[in-house]
Design brief:
Number of helices: 2
Number of strands: 6
Oligomer: single chain
Strand content: over 45%
Strand order of the largest sheet: 1-2-3-6-5-4
InterPro entries: Imm50
Largest sheet: 6 strands, antiparallel
Radius of gyration: 15 Å
Shape: globular
Protein name: Immunity protein 50
Pfam families: Imm50
Length: 137
């Protein structure tokens, strides 16, 4: 399973942007999906773009007992050539438990496992990291 996930992540165009920022591919635990854009295209290759507020959680806690975070950013992750999509429970808070990728033949599957809010599953021909914007969040 892990090898299949590594193959899927390696197939994401511009995945090196995320790897350079974090030093590894994160699991996006406690990241928040802030915005989602569904788009149609005349080519018939529909797309979905997720804007994910992510950070790296440290083992240190602050004075309130919360884990400190660093490397805050917004990752724009786009899927093109959608073959299947399930999109449920999008709300005012969409915290992820995990973001999983799997290679499936020539396609890529992505599961947005929810802690709160959004629960989604996508099968697409391609995935792209459109951008990674550092934030101060």
């Amino acid at each position: 399973m892990l090898e299949n996930q590594n193959l899927a992540i390696a197939s994401i165009v511009n995945s090196e942007i995320v790897l350079q920022h974090f030093g590894y591919w994160p699991d996006f635990h406690d990241a928040e999906v802030d915005k989602v854009i569904f788009e149609t295209h005349p080519t018939g290759r529909y797309s979905v773009t997720f804007f994910i507020a992510a950070s790296e959680m440290l083992s240190e806690v602050d004075e309130k007992g919360y884990y400190k975070q660093t490397k805050h950013c917004i990752v724009a992750l786009q899927f093109i050539g959608i073959k299947e999509v399930e999109f449920n429970y999008f709300s005012h808070q969409n915290a992820l438990f995990d973001l999983k990728f799997e290679a499936s033949g020539n396609d890529i599957e992505c599961t947005f496992e929810s802690s709160v809010g959004l629960d989604a599953f996508i099968v697409a021909e391609e995935a792209f990291v459109m951008s990674l914007t550092p934030t101060k969040r």
